[in-house]
Amino acid sequence: MQIAVIGAGASGLMVSGRLTSLGNEVTLFEKNEKVGKKLFITGKGRCNLTNLCDNEEFLSNVIRGNKFLRSAINHFSTYDCYSFFEELGLNLKVERGNRVFPFSDKSSDVIKTLEKFCKNVNIKYNTEVLDIIKKENKFDLVTSNGFYSFDKVIVSTGGKSYSLTGSTGKGYEIAKKFGHEVIDLKPALVAIEVKDDFISKLQGLSLKNVEISCFNRKFNFFGEMLFTDKGISGPIVLSLSSYINRINVDDLFIDFKPALDKKQLEQRLLREFDENKNKNIYYIYKGLFPSKLADIFGDIVGIKSDRKVNSITRVEREKIIDYIKCFPLKFKKFYALDTAIVTSGGVSLDEINPKTFQSKLCDGLYFIGEVLDIDALTGGFNLQIAFATAMSCADNLK
Ligand SMILES: Cc1cc2nc3c(=O)[nH]c(=O)nc-3n(C[C@H](O)[C@H](O)[C@H](O)COP(=O)(O)OP(=O)(O)OC[C@H]3O[C@@H](n4cnc5c(N)ncnc54)[C@H](O)[C@@H]3O)c2cc1C
User: Fold this and answer.
1) Average pLDDT, rounded, for the chain
2) Domain count along the chain
């Protein structure tokens, strides 16, 4: 059987290698001069390739498509993924939050391992697939380097972010051509722009152990965040973005002291006010926040830094507490899709078989990886999705 795979990223390499080891003839088309350009930049160049957790926990980290993924993750779990790479000679290590990395800390070693796995795959570099035409039981591929004919075609072209790595969204076009619905594309795991003018003064500030929330804490994430030129980013902001990218959001709130409730915070402030009666309130702000934030906090809350502590009224003290626990930011928009870690949305799962990944609309056509309407949180889950969908597709392809 002659099989074409379009796109040599995480899912395309995995499916191609597996299919050849099962005795199939595979041609892998990659428009770049090399494979795995996006893989190379994953995990800040270290490639967090999976997350060592059980299937339920894995699925709880998948935002869109978790029910659909059950079969694939049962077929190729995160433990299977770990063993797969180790058996191919790649030493791995597990870090905080069960994140798995190559022991060398080099994403290039993950790519080399996948290339080794693909040693019998016919890889066509610098070859972009431009169109697919179905003729009876065959698929004709129109590429930048000529025409080819295949029995089956697997689309593994990725999402539409970080397009310089090659993922420009061609797979969505192909899907539409064959009658598939493509769910609206949205940036996920992405930074957020806010309207507040003061934000640029906080640029570069990074905070640990804070909470970001919205909709009365319906969505809330605790951990690390940072301020950018136009807004906010960092792990908890990226996580939040994936949950709210299809909702109209007005306000976001930061809790700078989530470990203290309002009462405890008030007691702390009362003690500090008492000990520093004759100092400027700026002294108290400096004790609460890093300098960049302390410098502008008084203006934001409307209680100027040069006010004496002993002049602060009870109402003003309560206002300070409110702003520490519930600091408002006006949502403007998400950063552009091209800067998102993953693309949310994609080929509708209703029209894809969750075991074989074959189109329900066109026999012999398959979709795997990020091109599907699936996305997950950070921690190695997105690559695990690419690998698990690839393995399930290859092992069930008849
Ligand atoms: C900065 C960054 C860091 C990330 N870090 C992590 C991480 O540490 N852990 C994690 O789990 N996830 C991470 N991700 C997400 C993860 O990289 C993706 O979810 C994953 O690579 C998707 O795999 P894929 O095979 O679907 O697509 P891709 O890996 O994007 O591969 C698609 C391939 O198809 C090729 N292609 C596209 N169109 C055509 C065409 N018409 N013809 C020929 N070839 C074509 C592209 O050139 C590309 O090589 C990160 C993403 C980014 C952007």
Assistant:
1) 97
2) 2
Other beta carbons within 10 angstroms of residue 72's beta carbon come to: 25
pLDDT in tens, 224-242: 999 999 999 999 999 999 9
Q: Could you list the residue range(s) of the whole structural domain that residue 306 is in?
A: 191-334
Residue nearest to atom 13 of ligand 1 (CA): 42
Protein residue with its CA nearest to atom 51 in ligand 1: 341
> What pTM, to 2 d.p., does this model score?
0.97
The burial class, CB within 10 Å (0-12 / 13-18 / 19+), for 11 is buried
In one-letter notation, the amino acid at residue 378 is T
Residues 143 and 172 in one domain: yes
CA angle 368, 371, 375 (to 5 degrees): 95
CA of 9 to the centre of ligand 1 (A): 5
Is residue 299 located within the same domain as residue 365?
A: no
12-52 pLDDT, tens per residue? 999 999 999 999 999 999 999 999 999 999 999 999 999 99
- Number of the ligand 1 atom closest to the C-alpha atom of 381: 11
CA–centroid distance, residue 178 to ligand 1 (Å): 23
41 and 93 together in one domain? yes
